[in-house]
Write a structure and sequence with these properties.
heterodimer, A: Nucleotidyltransferase, domain 5, 2 domains, 5-stranded mixed β-sheet, B: Rossmann fold, 4 helices
């Protein structure tokens, strides 16, 4: 089956053509420069940019794949969660294509797409597995006993991990997006230089809390600024990053152990963080777990993961009615 | 000078408790705008108020998605305009509920926002006093809220600042 996948839930326009488990083409229109001066995604700007880039991107994705629109078996599109204006651009385009070519429309949950990236990356990978989904808007541990069935084991009770990275980066005057900046600085820093709080680390639940860490880090910086004291930015970045990553790795691996899963998947934009990747691989490997972390271009928002999730839904006989609309608060389970 | 009530909170939990105590004083159509620095406890305040309004779901930061909706005894809208130019953009995004009299709306608005607020609204300023301590300042805007502040004073009396 050949499916075109469209992803416009946030600020990246992702379009891809996937044939069964193989990516034939995948284009990502980055909008980072557009949003950098606001220190974050501005939904209105994002949806306008999607409008501008989506149609050319669809044409290019088909070209690169060497596939004509008539060969497509379905159009898969992210229907939520995300920004309503951005989602609407992708959903409207997908509906128009499905209607014109008389092929099924398949609505995909953005988070399900992130987990699907692991199956694209690792052919043969099968549930049951435990997944950590971490991005600007989400931080959760999910249990996938079988395809199509998600259970949320825990999630953030306040801020998402990507949001914490962005807010702290902005607070200390680093650029946007904050995650990659902190990651880059942290490579030259000592993660044990400062001890920032690991919230809920000792608690049995799989929930996360990042608001307290944010407040503690801001307080720490303010104290030093008030005393006119300089601090080493790489050490600071490495210590802050370690506080986030350590809790995520510990809880994910504990969930895998409790569920008896032999595979662990890390997905979402924050899965691009080099320290999270390294620590999860190291600690997971030590416990004999198969840790799958797709390459960065499959972790950040992309159309291929949506197309792949669409193929799975299509194979199950699912169809999305053409009058269905996007749901900005769509739940995974 | 707007009418004020100043409370003292010594922890995020206490900020939530103050907000929860305020909740019964809130009515559909009310707009509560929160200001304060990053980490001052704006989301914690909304978590407590939502609990007091009967919201059972978990209330998390709306920063990334801009708006989150909850169902309590009344529908609750939690907005973060940290990244919007002004509140008009919110309506352009399709959130007419913001102006709908059926909702209680909490807006984390920061100081830089060119607010499109109606005549009547309750301001909640979270002012950092120490590591954990915050001043929670309730400030009435509009004649109606000026009268209703008495109810806020009553409900939050046990946290009233000494000064």
């Amino acid at each position: 089956m050949i499916v075109l996948g469209i992803e416009t839930s946030c600020d990246e326009t992702g379009v891809a053509v996937v044939e069964d488990g193989r990516i034939r083409s995948s284009l990502i229109g980055q909008q980072i420069e557009l949003h950098a001066r606001y220190g974050g995604v501005v939904p209105e700007l994002a949806s306008r940019a999607h409008l501008r880039t989506l149609n050319p991107a669809i044409g290019q994705a088909l070209d690169h794949a060497g596939v004509s629109a008539r060969e497509l078996d379905a159009i898969a599109v992210t229907v939520g969660p995300g920004f309503i204006g951005s989602l609407l651009v992708g959903v409207s385009a997908a509906k128009a294509l499905a209607l014109v070519f008389g092929i099924p429309l398949i609505g995909v949950n953005h988070l399900e797409g992130h987990v699907e990236a692991a199956f694209l990356d690792r052919p043969g990978l099968e549930p049951p597995l435990v997944g950590l989904i971490v991005s600007g808007g989400h931080t959760m541990i999910v249990w996938l006993p079988e395809h199509g069935r998600f259970e949320i084991l825990g999630a953030t009770i306040d801020d998402a991990a990507g949001e914490a990275f962005d807010k702290i980066a902005r607070f200390v005057g680093l650029g946007y997006p904050g995650g990659p900046e902190i990651d880059r600085l942290a490579r030259d820093g000592n993660p044990a230089a400062h001890r920032f709080p690991r919230a809920l680390m000792a608690e049995p639940s799989y929930d996360f809390s990042l608001s307290g860490l944010k407040t503690a880090v801001i307080r720490w910086v303010r104290e030093r600024r008030a005393r006119g004291e300089e601090f080493d930015l790489p050490d600071f970045a490495a210590s802050f990053q370690e506080a986030i990553v350590e809790v995520q790795v510990a809880k994910t691996l504990r969930a895998a152990e409790e569920k008896g899963a032999s595979s662990v998947v890390v997905a979402g934009g924050v899965a691009a963080n080099s320290r999270l990747r390294a620590l999860m691989l190291e600690e997971g490997g030590r416990r004999g777990l198969d840790v799958v972390i797709p390459p960065v271009e499959l972790c950040t928002d992309n159309g291929a993961m949506i197309a792949a999730a669409g193929i799975r839904r299509l194979a199950r006989g699912e169809r999305t009615p053409l009058d269905a609309g996007p749901d900005p608060n769509l739940a995974l389970a | 000078m707007a009418a004020e009530q100043i409370c003292v909170s010594r922890s995020p939990e206490e900020t939530q408790a103050i907000a929860e105590a305020l909740a019964p004083a809130l009515l559909p159509g009310d707009i509560v705008a929160l200001s304060g620095d990053l980490g001052a406890g704006k989301t914690a305040f909304v978590q407590g108020a939502a609990r007091g309004l009967g919201v059972k779901e978990r209330v998390t930061s709306p920063t990334f998605v801009i708006v989150r909706e909850y169902q309590g005894r009344v529908p609750v809208l939690h907005v973060d305009v940290y990244r919007l130019g002004n509140l008009r953009e919110l309506v352009e995004l399709g959130y007419e509920e913001f102006l709908d009299p059926a909702w209680v709306v909490f807006i984390e608005w920061g100081d830089a926002v060119d607010a499109l607020l109606p005549d009547e609204w309750l301001e909640v300023e979270l002012r950092r006093e120490g590591d954990e301590e915050r001043r929670v300042v309730f400030r009435a805007h509009g004649r109606e809220w000026g009268r209703r502040l008495a109810g806020v004073r009553e409900r939050t009396a046990s946290w009233k600042a000494a000064v």
